[in-house]
Fold these 2 entries.
Entry 1:
Amino acid sequence: MSNSLILAIDTSCDDTSTAVTAGTKVLSNVIASQTQLHAPYGGVFPTVAKQAHKENINQTIKVALKRAKVSWEQISAIAVTQGPGLAPALEVGIAKAKELATQHKLPLIAINHIEAHALSPLANSTTQHQFPVLAIVVSGGHTEFIKITQIGEYKRLGFSIDDAAGEALDKVGRMLDLGYPAGPVIEQFAKKGDSKKYSIPLPMTDREDFNMSFSGLKTWARNKLEQLETQNPIDKQGIYDFTASFQYGVFRHICYKLNKLLKKHKIHEVWLGGGVATNITLRRMIRETLKSYNIKLLTPYSKRLCMDNAAMIGIVAGFKFQRKQFVKNIEDLERLPRWKVGS
Amino acid sequence: MKTINITKALEKKVVDATVKILQSGGLIIFPTETIYGAGVDATNQGAVDKLLTYKTRREGKPLSIAVPDQKTAIKYVEINEQAQKLYQRFLPGPVTVISKGLGKVACGVESEFGTLGIRIPDHALVLKILKAFDKPMTATSANASGKRRPYKIQDIFDNLSNKQKNLIDLVLDAGELPKNDPSTIIDTTLSTPTTIRMGKIKTTGGKTLISKSESETKKIAGMMMLKHWDEIKEKGLVVGLDGPLGVGKTIFTKGIGKFLKISDTITSPTYSYIEEYDYQRHGISGKLYHIDLWKIENEEELKRLKIEKLIVPKNVVVIEWWNQGKKYLEKITGLKILIQETNSHTRKLFINYE
């Protein structure tokens, strides 16, 4: 693996992040987010992020270089998220990356944010990997199965046709008055509840494809809650049981499609990335699904690598650097808000 | 520093000694139903500064406060309907409820957004101390920032410098606590709705359509687009959608997408606020913008979406949770649709109901 140092920037949604990486090694990974300001509260102040990115980006670059203990002379390339993401937010990162590449006369590498989530389990990993690999990306914005024949060669085998899995968890949490985003609260409460208390439907079983749908589960949750509330106000244990059942329903749907996919496709390893990849119950349920196929699950080494971050952008850029896949005309690089991997 | 073994000492003596120390601006380490906490008088600036020094790297993170009951809590925060439900269900217990603060605590306790977390610990002795003290006490974990969760006093001391240790005035040692997770934090200051307030919306005056299935909803959406096709070509069309979470607003948008012959799957725009699709229908090409105002809290955030700029000939701009932004979008006219559920498959669609 090349040791060329890459400075990577991600401004795809709410968080502004800059990282320095060398191959798959993470030297620094700075994330300036409302989440961090509110870390003890675990919540995000939802914000349309363009202004926030502009205010944060220079600071994250400075801190990323400092924490990595490197100077500009040591950097070999700039990498930036080109998409998918929120258009005005992406623009801020791209403009800054263009400016830095020109100023320091460095090649620029454009990265897909979902590819980066898919490869995020490689961060600081030194083991050899056996392809084909199936990457599962589960976050507040995406739920996808991506087959990786080799690094750089992808085929999207399935995706959510409506809400992302994390979004469904967040929204049902909101229905239960657990704030927003409520995914992390649901995970904690679900530990105390009975996941079999309510039998939740399994969507999309009549289809042969590997696509998923979570909006029906959301509708089921709202109807069930209304029905329960008409009997008695739901108490503490009721909330625990409901969150446990709903979370189980969401993850069971993913695992059902995963199992279906593994019957059709020969896969050697499964990599899990995205914000919901931190959920221990999801990891356990995926491991159980993989057991009969004798496939191991690889997850990112830290929570920061699961959330939106620039280190994962740098890791993909490391591979692209080796293949010399640089942006040809830096000035012409434009955001791709709906850029898909392997479809 | 003094240590009291609370499993052996007389309760009244412990309460009296602790209150005395808190009143004089002291820092105590106390047990809860989760982990050990570090407490000072949350209204005493000197005491709070001392606590912040003890905790080291705070980087602007707010503290929470412990109070004995909701009656005390309302002196320090505004409790809304959502918070009220949480208090009833979970408190006292391992949940911290964040509300809008009233500015009645020392600097550095409320967040920079003016919010404050309230904790009512499910721990008999701590509740007695709080009642006797009659003021809020900070309720942050007793470890220095970034160090391991403190379940026993030794966990804390292993990671403290002498300087930090010297800041502690009293330790209430309850031995090793059961390994419960720290409290779950729930923010009630965001206004993301679960349903629209029906009281404020008149559902009369317009036209009502009934859909008996998802595919019928999509068909209705397509028919409405056909009806407005000239308007789309000449001026562009805004479609405002309302209805509770999970009623089928995105299904309706999928119908619009189908009419516009968009092959890309139309997915929920909640995460990205705005999704953009190119379309080509009968030689006309334009864009479909799918916007979600659910997470939009104020006018400033809404302005950043620059919705007015999207409304140009040939574009269709679908706005979910229209009512959430209505007051800032008064100049924008278009089709308004409210979707209501009558049973699990049937939906009532109120068209231009105002």
Note: Residues 198-351 of chain B form a domain with the Rossmann fold fold (CATH 3.40.50.300).
Entry 2:
Amino acid sequence: MFFSADHIVKCFEGNRVLSDVSLSARSGEILAISGDNGSGKSTLLNILAGLVLPDTGQVLTSTEPLEAGSTKLPGCHKLTGEVRLLFQFPRLFRGLTIEENVRAGLRDPLRENMLRSILPIPAARESGARFTVQQLLKKVDLTSLSNRYPHELSFGQRKLASVVQLLAGNPSVVLLDEPFAALDGDAAMTLTSLLAENQKAGAIAILVEHDLQHIDALKTPRKFRIEAGRIMPLSERGRS
Amino acid sequence: MLSILVVGICKGALWALVAAGFAMIFGTTRVFHFAHGAIFVWGAYFFDALLIFKTPAAVAFLGSILLAAILGVGIDAGIYRPLQSRGAPPTTVLLGSLAIYTVLVNTAGLAFGDRTLVLRAGTDQMYSLGPILITRMQTVECVSSLALFVVLSIVFRYTNMGLDIRAVADNQALAEWRGINTSFVRLVVVAFGSGLAAFAGIIAGLDTGLDPTAGLPISLLAVSATIFAGSDRLAAPMMISGVMGATHSLITWFTSGTWADALFYTILFGALIWRAHKPRESTGEVS
Amino acid sequence: MDYVLHLAALISLYGILALSLDLMLGLGGMMNLATAAYIGFGSYTYALATTRFMAPPLVAAAISIIATSAIACALSILLTKCSRETFVLATISIQMIFYSAVYNLEATNGSNGISGIPPLAIGSITTMSPVSFTSLCAFCLCLMFGLRHKLASSPFSLGLRALRDDDVAAANLLIRSNRVQPAVTALAAGAGSMVGILIAASSGYIDPTSFVLSESLFVLSCVALGGFESGAGAVVGTLILVILPDCLSLLSVDSNAIFHVRQCLSGILLLSVLRFRPAGLLGSTRGLE
């Protein structure tokens, strides 16, 4: 799996938020971008996720390596659900229980298909889905809260629930906006182990943080810095 | 042909009045005050009721405007504010507005019947301006609309009250923090807007007559015009409503019957769709 | 006895509408005020197909349901990008366009309406006899109740509710409104047209005044009163709002007045619900507000 962004430019109301941002990643890689508020980090992630359209440039996913300068086939990653974004502030569905929230993250075509949903669903499929959700909730220690609603959970718990909701769909690319912000030590460790597991499974992770201290626990992350809409690699001794 | 145009313009002026009231109310309360159309209608009905009780015309006129203002404030205080302070989403408040609209319109239907109410007996006095023949009521419509626009422009720009209103319309929390009595501003605006609607209703009743459902197209138009124009402007909703009112009048003239309504709503529908598909400039969000 | 049957049929028909509206609004977050237009379109299509084109009643019914669903689905695709408030206004516009069109077209006979509409018969169940008709309506109600329940507990309901709560987060998980919303709308339109067909087939006569905005609002009130996201709630709300004002007919009040009273009552009850118990009678307060 190859994921790349080419020459992304984005302006809002006359301000240039992103200037010529390009990056690329392949399976199993983690890109860690350090950036402050106002650097354009959230906009970049939104564009990479396909939730916002760039003014120029494109975001591509592909199963073959893309050579620089070649005409690319736009990999419409939104159509296959390969890329998912973890929002800075957890966006769980407030009318759904935690279990239902995670279930909504499963890549189930029936979520959009009314006619097939009217027909009886094979018991095996249903129990399989339930099992997957339970396993995921166990990983983040939220099993006891599975029938609660998001507003009943703490911020950290909601964040972990969101992560697990994201991972339920086995996305090839996970984008994370300040995932470690406001997490206590235990939760941070859980998150790190989830990311490591994800990395081992071959997924790509791109995350943006104020400081990159948590990242060192993961396998050889590539570090960058985003500032005023421009992105540049960070050397090993660079300030994090 | 010219006189048809004049009729259209006067109708447009009337609708602009109603839209102005709505835009003001929306600006300060952020409520889609659908019931505004009901207050428009009730203005005429209050007038009729007062006349039945043998009050002199001038007193009835002022009285019904006052009653309408009280009604408007009552709706705001009794329904919109409690809902908003509880954190209800805008669609819930809109639902409340639709509910009170239903209650008001059907009460009118019960009390006064569904027939068209014409407040004036006999034909209206006519004036002639060169080749144009214009009725007294139509003159009132145009003059008052213009006068209102001028007055409001002055008030908003040069008086303290006007500045306070604009501040609240722009950012309520900030206005509150600056020490502006937002509750009072809200009260004044709602009262004035409702009184304005009632005034327009009486004029409409005196001019062509109206029935309980007459407020609906005007409500819809006022709401839509305000959505298009942006919530903090007054001139644009007035202008849009004015044009649409004139168009409605012209279509009615040329096609006879209520085809005007169908065409009018189709234009409205098309405009709403067009608006929805315009890319949102500030966030550029796709979904 | 006939009166009780008539009431039962009325409750069943409105109940079907309330259940389908709960799918659209309670689960889907779409405040749709074109319900009366769905009913009316179904009624008129059935009436015209049978009286003008001499189609057999069952065929006409099928055409009516398919046509209404298809058109509503198409319109819904246009509306997927609308904000909540714009959506409401757009559905109101659709409702008003329908009413105006039906009132003015010669084909639909304007305010005179269409009479001589043949009844519907499936085997020995016909819309002609009160018992038969009421049973048919009740059966359709049960069908709709079951359908709603099935969908509400299926993965589709996850998609619906996700879009209702946060459409951006839903898109992030690949739940797209332009797949989900037209489908639900088509279902609601189909249910509405079915009700319209039953009305036309039983009374033999229809005119535009039955298909007005107030009726859409009435159905909305039934759902709001009974409680969103609850099938039992939709039925209970309908029961209350239909029976209460109909008791007045026992006082032989003029039918026009009953219409107004029913609307007033539904408006007042709706306001009370919004003010004091926003989740409705049987709805759950799920930290909505």
Note: Residues 281-287 of chain B have pLDDT under 50 and may be disordered.
